[in-house]
What does this fold into?
Amino acid sequence: MNPGVSTAKIALTALGAIHLAVAIWHGQAHTELGVALSPAQNLFVYVVVVLAPLVAIGLLWTRYTQVGVWLFLIALSGSFLFGVYYHFVFVSPDNIHHLPPGSEAAHARFVQSAAILAVVELVSALAAAFVIRAQHRSA
It folds into this structure.
């Protein structure tokens, strides 16, 4: 097996695991502050933010590696755009500047987890794009 391919699979898998952990942490911050999402937002979170990266990681370790990398790129890019929009742009209780009442610590956890989630999603999407570019160059 090509060492570069193994390194890419391991790196994307690690990023996916980190993303899942931070997403769970952020979900707990939502619960703690009572920040509810609409049914459509919940569907997006469960399908695109949680499930799609896990499916992508699974595909990375099969003969469908290229599909897995593309799914990872699409899912993490979509997750990044969704999170940035709802946490930092759109005015709602999900925006870090318009959180509902709660303790200073709960607010801090929400803000920190939202920021770290955005960074992890951006880095993950860029890593997947880098892997795709490397695959195309070696083809």
